[in-house]
Amino acid sequence: MSSPEPAAAKAVNIDSQLPEGRVFSVPTMCMIAFVIGLVASFGAVVFRYLISFVHNLLYYGTISFEYDANQFGDPSPFGIFIILAPVIGGLIVVFLVKTFAPEAKGHGVPEVMFAIYHKNGDVRGIVAVVKSLASAISIGSGASVGREGPIIQIGASFGSSIARMLNLVRWQKITLLSAGAGAGIAATFNTPLGGVLFAVEMLLPEVSNRTFLPVVVATATATYAGRIAFGLDPAFLVPIANIDVHEAIDPVQLVFFAILGVLAGIVSWAFIRVLAKCEDIFPALPGNDYTQNIIGMLIIGTLSYVFFTTTGQYHTAGVGYATIQDILNGTPYTFILLGCLLVAKVFATSVSLGAGASGGVFSPSLFIGATLGGLVGVAGAYIFPDHGFMAAEFALVGMGALVGGATGASMTAIVMIFEMTRDYNVIVPLVLAVAVAVGVRRWLIQDNIYTIKLRNRGKPIPTNRHTNMYLVRPATELMATNFKVLPQDMPVRDALEAVAQDGSEHVIVADGSRIAGFVRFGTVPYLADRISGQTLKDL
Amino acid sequence: MSSPEPAAAKAVNIDSQLPEGRVFSVPTMCMIAFVIGLVASFGAVVFRYLISFVHNLLYYGTISFEYDANQFGDPSPFGIFIILAPVIGGLIVVFLVKTFAPEAKGHGVPEVMFAIYHKNGDVRGIVAVVKSLASAISIGSGASVGREGPIIQIGASFGSSIARMLNLVRWQKITLLSAGAGAGIAATFNTPLGGVLFAVEMLLPEVSNRTFLPVVVATATATYAGRIAFGLDPAFLVPIANIDVHEAIDPVQLVFFAILGVLAGIVSWAFIRVLAKCEDIFPALPGNDYTQNIIGMLIIGTLSYVFFTTTGQYHTAGVGYATIQDILNGTPYTFILLGCLLVAKVFATSVSLGAGASGGVFSPSLFIGATLGGLVGVAGAYIFPDHGFMAAEFALVGMGALVGGATGASMTAIVMIFEMTRDYNVIVPLVLAVAVAVGVRRWLIQDNIYTIKLRNRGKPIPTNRHTNMYLVRPATELMATNFKVLPQDMPVRDALEAVAQDGSEHVIVADGSRIAGFVRFGTVPYLADRISGQTLKDL
Q1: What's the CATH architecture for B245-456?
Q2: Cβ–Cβ of B438/A10 closer than 8 Å?
Q3: What angle separates helix A410-421 from helix A391-407, to the nearest 10 degrees?
Q4: A505 vs chain B: nearest CA distance in angstroms?
Q5: Element at A508 (helix H, strand E)
Q6: Which residues in chain B have Cβ-Cβ distances shorter than 8 Å to A462?
Q7: Exposure of A238 by Cβ count < 10 A (0-12 exposed, 13-18 middle, 19+ buried)?
Q8: Closest partner residue to A217 among B4, B435, B517, by Cβ?
Q9: Residue B363 CA to its chain's centroid (Å)
Q10: DSSP letters of B341-402?
């Protein structure tokens, strides 16, 4: 009844040089994904409670699992000594990470991408445990990091570990890994579509029926389980979402939303650069991992204490949702305070991660975007007082634009922000600002906040996805002239020149009349400096 | 500041054998996309008015542009003679299509896909005009077809024509074509994300910054313009969307939603098969295009008149939104009536398109899905009266499941249904049912309702999308053993066997020691029967 899947042939190809593994049918994979969805949502619940526990212990000296990150907390009874909370937390984090799982350092998503593209989809089971603990301590103790990166890595660890237990082939392992990651996001944020789209845009190397359906099943399951645990409310309750709008948006506002997109692209670029810089600077400081961490965490603690003494809130500590919620509630923030918060959060998150904290960049992106959007909204209301500018609306759009700009995952950014706020009124400005922000950021720097880390390690991953046009072209067209036969002892440098001359992309490496190999030159530019002295045979 | 895009190399590759064309930067493309968005939304407005005009003329003998497809119309004063309306309309449609643009026959999306993959992205400008007229007459006169396929083809024609005027290279032409298509959907349904996702899932061969951003800009522009023309309301106003839900959904209901997914997969398969069958049967009937059309349209007219005499409404005529809206309003429909509507709509749409009507299959899919969902909801309420089953909720989920099953575009189906109804309460059941429906349908038949037409023509297009894992693998891995060197006079039959034995996918065709060509065997299975007698040299 059904013709053979052309995809099946590709799978053989991808996996042909790897040890054999089992291949399950799509329905079986969906059943496994169902279990992964349950496990990942359980992991999300445990992780949220761990954060609460650490936060209450270090900030208030109490043993309690009650903590609503969307509300500002009371002042800590420890006064200025609260500066030491991130330092104490940081030392434990560094010890945990160094001792048990180095891959639990950092913000999570790059490590998962690295595992997909360069480690056959293997994420160790211990990562789930160490990452949960380390990130809970980092976030709870006040480092300026988010909880989505960790939950992605934790979910990925579940998915990958279950796949390894079942001895699945690589592409099915990667599918379950992505399913676990998507499920983790969906459970913790109550964003089923956002979870699916994140897996599709950022993780899955192949998007097709056989990879997509397990991801969807895991994500839907985790959302359902997460709703039972956390309730049905969106991540942010936004009063403006309930306004009944009857007119298309004011064109002047639309221009400001476009400007917000441009600014978000620039700020995303700055965030990516500052973060990468801090990740270089801290390991180069004198001393060891512990002393480097102490320096960073003292800065973080001081910064949030300065905000406490000036504004009454520890704005830059932890996930920062209380500040975001406050802005979305429509609480008036001054232009100056929003600007300070923006700059401080970029700095605090970069320092936290540079100094070795464990946590994500998504929540900080939301924070930075909300403050940037608020700035633009306040400016708009000041310049055009009669055009109905609402800072909260701009903040919401700014969150999406910054997430889009920083991660490059446009659809994820748009849909996640909608799902986190359930405000469909701003969908057109949101789509517009995200598109502009992604465009501007990519014009400034190709890598996103996840892939830059991998490129700096010399392990880039692809950023585009495309159907293979070759599959449908007549075979005569395929016998193309765009490959060259080159002797195997030709240096790569010369080969690159020969290739550049006539635009061919594939090279057949010949050993006399025998064919010794086949190089696709799309690969080479990434590594060109390192390998240009080698001969093709060495490749 | 930014590294060179690896995508650029691919573009050269894709286009290397084609005549040169201009390449515009992404910002320039976005500005062109802005214009296309405006043009496409203007086209959507004109198209809607044309449908209204034809409908009022043929059903009521009045000259008027007032028509709300979501409300049941009054009985036609023509009584039984209304059976002739689709016949009269059909004859004009056949004349228009035959005389001016054969590619305007049928449901639109396959023709656009064909243009993308096999005609360098060329959709003629005349198609926009002929398709608008022909589809407006088909829909207005009562053929059982939808208005989304036409608007996609009309938008694609705008995009492609503008690209040709500017002499753009192929991939940029395809990008603007997709932008026009997405913009058309977005404008007519007020679904910005659905429009983007449709272009991404169904049209764009490559999804990346440079192709995605123009699509987003066109779609957002068209949505904005469409909202000014048609208002801000969603396509369907759904009372249940406003219910404030505080508990995760009843597990018994969830099981029924999964069953609905399975049934939707089966019904999608049946719809695809019946439609394909009708498209074969009618052209084989005795007589010419006109007489074949008369036969089909008499059946259509009679069927909708039978529904009128028994239920008071012409349920199967036109886009069918009034029936869908009625079911979503919660109007009680009997199990029997829903079943009759389901079967009748599958039949009516297949006959309409088989007989040569011009119009889409998306609205019929919504109709079929709503009746199927209603059936399951009514059954559930009957079996488990205390579990809060609502037929309208199941109808809504059924719409998504059927669209997903029929088109294979899962994310588009989920997001479109949300955007058309703004009901986020059912998101988890919707995601679940769509995933199950797509899985079941693909297990029954690989092709979706669009691609089956192309496969039957011997012009298949790819159904999966994947990042190219090769780009990131070390070159040593690339020098793989998964290609074979075969002599050029070997018959393809033998070559396929040799390839099948060891799972290699690429074949280097050798003429003695010279390399004569390169065949990727992913291509061949599609055409295997036709070419297996040829030698590799012939390829």
Answers
A1: Orthogonal Bundle (1.10)
A2: no
A3: 150
A4: 7
A5: strand A506-511
A6: 6, 467-468, 471-472
A7: buried
A8: B435
A9: 10
A10: HHHHHHHHHHHHHHTT-B-BSHHHHHHHHHHHHHHHHHHHHHH-TTS---HHHHHHHHHHHH
User: Closest approach of chain A CAs to the CA of B184, in angstroms?
Assistant: 15
Residues of B in contact with A216 (CB under 8 A): 410, 431-432, 434-435
Q: Is the dihedral of CA B49, B50, B55, B57 positive or negative?
A: positive
CATH code of A248-456, in short, is 1.10.3080.10
Within 8 A by CB and 6+ apart from A354, the residues are A275, A277, A278, A279, A280, A281, A282, A283, A296
pLDDT value of position A488:
52
User: Angle A410-421/A427-444 helices, nearest 10 degrees?
Assistant: 140
B residues 180..209 contacting A (CB < 8 A): 192-193, 196-197, 200, 205-209
Flag whether residue B31 sits within 8 Å of chain A, measured between CB atoms: no
Contact B500, B472 (CB under 8 A): no
Tokens 């949101």 appear where?
Answer: A430
The tokens of B244 are what? 């404030």
Between residues 384 and 423 of chain A, which touch chain B (CB distance below 8 Å)?
A: 408, 410-411, 414-415, 419, 422
Question: Comparing C-alpha atoms, which of A9, A10, A408 is closest to residue A200?
Answer: A408
Task: Answer whether B208 sits within 8 Å of A520, measured CB to CB.
Answer: no
Query: What CA–CA distances, in Å, run from B183 to A140, A354, A410, B195, B438?
Result: 46, 43, 17, 6, 25
**A395-444 pLDDT, tens digit each:** 999 999 999 999 988 889 999 999 999 888 889 999 999 999 998 998 89
Place of tokens 């679904």: B191
Residue-wise pLDDT tens digits, B84-142: 999 999 999 999 998 888 888 877 888 888 888 888 888 888 888 899 999 999 999 98
- Find the DSSP H helices in B479-517: 492-502
User: What ipTM does the predicted assembly reach?
Assistant: 0.77
Residues A25-35 have pLDDT tens digits of 888 888 999 99
Closest-CA residue of A relative to B229 is A248
Q: Is the pLDDT of residue A212 over 90?
A: no
Q: Do A478 and B517 touch (CB under 8 A)?
A: yes
Return the structure tokens found at A326. 């406050």
Among residues B44, B79, B45, the alpha carbon closest in space to that of B61 is found at B79
Chain B nearest C-alpha distance from A200 (Å): 10
Q: Of A152, A160, A220, which is closest to residue A192 (Cα–Cα)?
A: A220
Cβ-based contacts under 8 A for chains A and B: 323
**Nearest residue of B to residue A440, measured between CA atoms:** B27
Cβ-based contacts of B247 with chain A (< 8 Å): 232
Hey, what's the torsion of the CAs at B143, B147, B148, B152, to 10 degrees?
Answer: 100
In the CATH scheme, what architecture does the domain B6-230 have?
Orthogonal Bundle (1.10)
Tell me what pLDDT residue A110 has: 87
d(CA B155, CA B471): 34
Decide if A137 contacts A316 (C-beta within 8 A): no
Please count the other Cβ atoms lying within 10 Å of the Cβ belonging to residue B334.
11
CA A531 to chain centre: 31
Q: Which of A217, A208, A214 is nearest to A5 (CA)?
A: A208
CA atoms within 13 A on the CB side of A178: 33
- The highest-confidence range among A396-405, A530-539, B469-478, by mean pLDDT, is A396-405
Question: Could you write out the DSSP letters of every residue in A272-325?
Answer: HHHHHHHHHHHHHSSS-HHHHHHHHHHHHHHHHHHHHHHHSS-TTSTT-HHHHH
Token output for A293: 């961490």
Nearest CB neighbour to B192, from listed A431, A508, A515: A431
Spatial separation of the C-alpha atoms in residues B180 and B104, rounded to whole Å: 16
